[in-house]
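anyone seen this seq b4? input:
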Amino acid sequence: GQSIAEALGRRFTRVSLGGVRDEAEVRGHRRTYVGALPGRIIHALQRCETRNPLLMLDEVDKMGADVRGDPTAALLEVLDPAQNGTFVDHYLEVPFDLSGVMFIATANSLAPIPDPLLDRMEVLTLPGYTPGEKLAIAKRYLLPRQLKETGLNTERASIADGALERLIGEYTREAGVRQLEREIQGALPKAALEVVEGRAATVKITVKNLEKFAGQPKVQSEVAGREAEVGVATGLAWTPVGGDIMFIEAIQMPGKGQITLTGQLGDVMKESAQAAWSLLRARAGPLGIPLEAFTQTDVHLHLPAGAVPKDGPSAGIAIATALASLLCRRPARHDVAMTGELTLRGRILPIGGLKEKLTAAARAGVKTVLVPARNQSDVVDVPDEVKQLLEIKPVETIDEVLELALLEPHPLRPVAVRARTSGQSEARP
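predicted toks r here
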């Protein structure tokens, strides 16, 4: 917010709305009450001494409502350009012109924000930092700041780029850099202790000695499989702290044609699995799937980790690939990951969070990623450092996905069987 205000030549002020439950915090208290004060909006303008500042409404998704009113309803007039020219604070009791104020609201999630209030905002989604961006921020800002707070300088202590990269990948999992700064903050005092006690004149934290200063790694990221397997496909997921890869596992057993879904799947993901199952059943002939697979066997589909809730339609083609691999007995390539929503006609619909998903694929060692063809415009936003590590292939139908993701069945090796006749052994193919 401060940087935007400086770029626009405006003064900056911030209003924290986290935990606000009283409408009077926005509109002010009437002067008949003891200790009455203007609302936070008017108070912020008084503090910055101008009528056209950049005013940041911080954590608007953390507001609540109770018997004292709903503060989100009070913000409707504040943020509506057609009404905020005559905003009335209960304490002032006269119209006040807010049309010159530039409002910026921040939130971690759009879900708690009421639709009427959201309709008055232009939503800009800020993606998480890539590992390269985190490394640059750590070198330029976080490390110098923590060195200063620890009482060190670059001549006495330093952290190698490789160690910072390992801190980013193995010690933190976040969209921002707060935890990364905490890890740096925890490692530098141990380096300072060695300097103070005279055990070393200078300390350089490297990849090899990082655990001595930062402890054991705290995050174990998923990595791509080592070999192609039947019934296992690699999908891509978006999370609030970035992207991740996930393995979709399917097994077959004698039964009556039922499919079981486990792994804390949400309703949308369950429907995606049912759609994939119906599509494969309808196309059993062209795919070479015996019809007995849908009537005489049961299938169990699982998405680890079981303790993590999962939802969304973007795993549709990965689920279909895992099921097709199982039913056709064709191994799915371990170096191919995919994301996309699947329809009953076999078409692939676009998805969100592509930048985070591709970053996760590159981090996990995946070589090829299948993405919906209608998401090609989003590939432009993916950092070049990520695109250089991946072969990104756009796909439009499930037939293209299966052609790229599935290998041919392994030929059965002949087994030598020895039959004993008249006291002699005979080898038969």
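The chain has a mean pLDDT of 86. DSSP finds 15 helices and 18 strands in the chain. kinda curious what u guys think
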